[in-house]
Design a protein that fits this description.
Elements: H1 15-22, E1 32-34, E2 43-46, E3 51-60, H2 67-80, E4 85-96, H3 102-118, E5 122-131, E6 138-148, E7 163-167, H4 172-181, H5 183-188, H6 193-200, H7 211-220, E8 225-227, H8 233-245, E9 248-252, H9 260-269, E10 283-286, H10 291-300, E11 305-312, E12 318-321, E13 327-329
Parallel strand pairs: 4-5, 9-12
Antiparallel strand pairs: 1-2, 2-3, 3-6, 4-6, 7-10, 7-11, 8-10, 9-11, 12-13
Helix pairs in contact: 2-3, 4-6
């Protein structure tokens, strides 16, 4: 029978199809503690001594401005969700044939070096080339770190009754990307340069890096699960936590913080903020009794935090409680809303 070729949307593969692909991967090495699994964004390898080796890879495909910074941070975010300390970074840098300049290359290399240096990460190699048929630079980063074996956190660790905490808010990375990549289009909406500059600055304030909050949480509480919602936004991130941990969840939508700039961008571009790329947010699962203390700790360190939900049995499904008190199914998509703009 001739196979029907499916048309694929931009962004992540559908979870069902990806799960099918991953089920065919055989792990032959007993030292692999965590390999390929939906919701688990880093591999865990057992090595001699007190630590596990943690390995992560992630590309940057939407952003071009400050792409070197993005490439380091998105890998740092997934790595620190395991409780690990980032140590060694590599990157594959693919540059467009007709647009590349010395200035572009110099800026990318400096961006990567300076970002790594600020986090005590060592750049240990990679690959750079001019690539045909690209209309923008693309970087695929790879980061290695270490975590004490008794401090490892897995996305699959969430259990029924655990509290789900969100830091900062949502649509942070998406706001920065739109501000930087769609500046000319934003000007036509007469939003003003101050507004556009605030959107661009979301890269650093509130910022797409979750290193500080991850360290605070892991150093002071028993974290059950931790996840960095990226493509597909917070709702896809929540869904990935439930898939990994074999649970359900109920979310209180009015507890999810949407800042002013993301709200405006959502209306202008008809984007659902709950399904838009959200690096900078951190989803944390803890025992319900630890939730108030962790929230207080984060807020006392100038990191906004709120309990937005509770994990339930898988049979309960994925549920959203709306502002009017009614409940509905949590709808998520592996295709990020920001793809509408690219």
């Amino acid at each position: 029978m001739k196979r029907v070729h499916e048309k694929f949307a931009l962004g992540k593969l559908k979870h069902d199809y990806l799960a099918q692909l991953l089920s065919n991967i055989e792990v032959h090495d007993s030292r692999v503690i965590m390999g390929s699994k939906i919701g688990e964004d880093a591999a865990i390898i057992d090595i001699p001594g007190e630590n596990y080796l943690v390995i992560k890879t992630d590309p940057i495909t939407f952003a071009t401005d400050e792409i070197g910074y993005y490439s380091v941070i998105v890998n740092v975010n997934d790595l620190v969700c395991t409780g690990a300390k980032p140590k060694w970074f590599q990157s594959t840098i693919l540059l467009p044939e007709k647009l590349t300049t010395n200035e572009m290359i110099d800026k990318i290399f400096k961006n990567i070096h300076d970002t790594c240096k600020s986090m005590d990460i060592t750049v240990v190699g990679g690959h750079t080339e001019i690539t045909p048929r690209l209309d923008r630079p693309i970087i695929i980063g790879s980061l290695i770190g270490e975590v004490p074996k008794d401090k490892l956190v897995l996305t699959s660790g969430a259990e029924k009754g655990d509290a789900l905490i969100l830091t900062k808010g949502i649509f942070i990375e998406g706001t920065s990307i739109i501000g930087r990549e769609k500046e000319k289009e934003l000007i036509t909406h007469e939003l003003g340069y101050d507004f556009i500059k605030r959107c661009q600055d979301y890269l650093f304030d509130p910022g797409i890096c979750v290193l500080k909050e991850a360290l605070l949480a892991n150093n002071n509480f028993k974290i059950k699960s931790c996840h960095d919602p990226t493509e597909g936004g917070i709702y896809t991130g929540v869904a990935e936590m439930t898939i990994a941990s074999n649970t359900g969840v109920i979310i209180e939508e009015n507890k999810i913080n949407i800042l002013r700039e993301p709200k405006v961008l959502s209306e202008i571009f008809n984007i659902n903020p709950y399904n838009t790329i959200s690096s900078g947010s951190l989803l944390i699962a803890v025992n319900q009794e630890d939730s108030p203390g962790l929230i207080d700790l984060l807020r006392n360190n100038k990191i906004d935090a709120e309990q937005i939900g509770i994990f339930m049995s898988k049979a309960k499904g994925l549920v959203v409680k709306k502002e009017d008190g009614k409940t509905d199914q949590l709808i998520y998509s592996e295709t990020d809303e920001i793809t509408k703009l690219f």
